[in-house]
Amino acid sequence: MSIDVVEPKTISQFEDEQGIYQPAPHIVEQANITAYMRSKGFSTWEELYQWSIEHPHLFWADMANRLEWYEPWEKVLDDSNKPFYKWFVGGKFNIVHNAIDRHLKTARRNKQALIWEGEDGSYRAFSYFGINREVSKFANVLKSMGVQPGDIVSIYMPRIPELVFAMLACAKIGAAHSVIYGGFSVEALRERIADAQSKVLITADGGYMRGKIVELKKIADEAMGHSPSIQTCIVVRRTGHNVEMQAGRDYWWHDLMSLPIATARCETVPVDAEHPLYILYTSGSTGKPKGVVHVHGGYAVYIASTLYFTFDIKEEDRYWCAADPGWVTGHSYIVYGPLIEGATSFMYEGAPNYPYPNRWWSLVEKYGINILYTAPTAIRGLMRFGDAWPNRHDLSSLRLLGSVGEPINPEAWRWFYNVIGKGRCPIMDTWWQTETGGFMITPNPTTPLKPGSATRPFLGIQADVVDEQGHSKGANEDGLLVIKSPWPGMMRTILRDPDRYVNQYWNSDPRGMYTAGDSARKDEDGYFWIIGRIDDVIKVSGYRLGTAEIESALVSHPAVSEAAAIGLPHEVKGTAIHCFVILRAGIEETPALEDELKAHVAREMGPIARPESIKFVSMLPKTRSGKIMRRVLKAQALGQDPGDLSTLEG
Ligand code: WTA
After folding, report:
1. Contact 517 CB / ligand 1 (< 6 Å)
2. Category of 423 on φ-ψ map: left (φ > 0), alpha (ψ -120 to 50) or beta
3. Gene Ontology cellular component (predicted)?
4. Is the minimum distance from the CB of 333 to ligand 1 under 6 angstroms?
5. pLDDT (tens digit, 9 = 90+) per residue, 113-167?
6. Rounded mean pLDDT of 247-272?
7. pLDDT at 645
8. Which domains does the chain have, with CATH numbers?
């Protein structure tokens, strides 16, 4: 597939001589960050940033004071047991009190909290009052099912409002949720349920994607068949197609919500600031996906302040983060962040180009979206349909744009800026990770922008590019991206594996910096340019997958003896998965088997993991200790020099 690169015709009118996009004065004047900067007595962002990293306790206390606490914290940061940092120690809090309850005392009670459109055109909207009713009722249902504070409830749902209610209901009663992306399949779901030891699974009969039904309940049934911990499954009716309901285990959401027990009164449980809010599984460099743990207090402070300053949320805004709630972007910036800020969050169920490539632009026009936050892969995917589709729509409501998930190539940046934002809307290229909870390196509306750079660290964040020994690299030199001091939104540990948390993120550097797993460089202006993952994580269309998971899906097929997966550049997806497979003795290498193996991976893990190509080989490059050298495979595929081969098996 080739991309029609749209050459922006008017670019020079927005760019200065150095190729930098200077912010418009009226945007700077009205920005939340400008108001905060002035309130602290500073006249430039630079001074504000310096103060924030020199006095992080003062800055984060300011941010925490934007929220409501049942009982105030005694200490902003406890770093007595590094890297197990604790934030807002002694504080009593609940994120749901801040996302919902406190708004009910104000005029926001009647403001739209969530607007939703299904792929089939259905429409639902909930005010803060309305969302509180749904969440409270469902929280009572969960309690009646025996869900206790500290339990982990697994959620496997399409992009529908009940997914949001389920997450909030868990948090309200002090239970943690583990949302498993609805595009994942049986094995991925089973593994995550098992690690979380969930007693309750919340799912739906199905969801819509490109006009077809995704059989979520069927996949859940298969996974539950091998999940002894599950006692109860709650099923939302979304598609209405026939699904099996196992008596005594499976219940319809709407049946439970009409029981007398499901009253709309439910006290939000005050929990410790460090109480777990959710587990989110993400791929790491080796082995099983890891359960990243986030907590109520510091996480809430972090995502609310990053959203407030970066996307400059204003009372009248309609904000659309087009990610899936099943990934961290959705957790932080569809569900919790916007609700804490009292914003109106828009959510769309389906594919961006269904039934036509103007679907997204028609949604922007129809709902008057002011802020649109998405991923480079979606931008590239829509760009290739040409300008006529967006040009047919009134996109003048847009004020700010955002990008996340992978480096955005300058062509896609400029298309987004010129064709969608009409040269009026700054693009917030936000670099962050599941582990960081929220934006780490990001512009704000007052930042001069360079297409393809995530610009500078957020307030209170000290980022750097270093060598293997932890020494800072010079300007424009490639190195490891590290964070040099803790921040409130950071992950607290890996569920059931604290050693892995220490080893994976903190031990590679003697000074105990947080190692992100990305390579980057910093230019002479201190702008960060993210290059990509240095470990065995592949970002396919912005989705994070581990080579180890793909390989283990392949070797679970009876024809496969050994497998290796690598990521290679792809013009729309950013990176695509390519696999190398050694077949078992006597098995014939056929195109049919290649297709069968691709389908097998998609079935086991989910359609996003479907390999682009499978190559049959007779051997794989390995180290003497037997580790597959994926970098050698990658260099060969790209026709590059494979580098040092001294550890290669002879
Ligand atoms: C990549 C997604 C370049 C990076 C929020 C990171 C980015 C990984 C950007 C985390 C960006 C995310 N520019 N690369 N703006 N944002 N990444 O955990 O490789 O799904 O380490 O979190 O995505 O992916 P995750």
Report:
1. yes
2. left
3. cytosol
4. no
5. 999 999 999 999 999 999 999 999 999 999 999 999 999 999 999 999 999 999 9
6. 98
7. 72
8. 535-638 (3.30.300.30)
- Residue 509, CA distances (Å) to 470, 506, 514 in order: 6, 6, 8
Q: Helix 591-605 and helix 186-196: axis angle, to 10°?
A: 30
Nearest residue (CA) to ligand 1, atom 22: 433
Q: Tell me the whole-structure pTM to 2 decimals.
A: 0.94
Closest to 453 measured CA to CA, from 374, 520, 362, 537: 520
Burial (CB count within 10 angstroms: exposed 0-12, middle 13-18, buried 19+), residue 610: middle
pLDDT at 285: 67
Which three-class secondary structure state does DSSP give residue 457?
strand
Q: Give me the amino acid identity at 427.
A: I
- In angstroms, the CA 64 to CA 474 distance is 35
Q: How far apart are CA 49 and CA 525, in angstroms?
A: 15
Residue 200 has pLDDT above 90, yes or no: yes
Cite the beta strand spans of 118-166 per DSSP E.
Answer: 123-127, 152-156
Q: Is the CB of 135 under 6 A from ligand 1?
A: no
277 contacts 174 by C-beta, under 8 angstroms: no
Q: Supply 40's token pair.
A: 């602290």
Residue type, 314: K
Residue 2: per-residue pLDDT: 45
Pocket of ligand 1 contains residue 438 by CB under 6 Å: no
Angstrom distance (rounded) from CA 21 to CA 41: 27
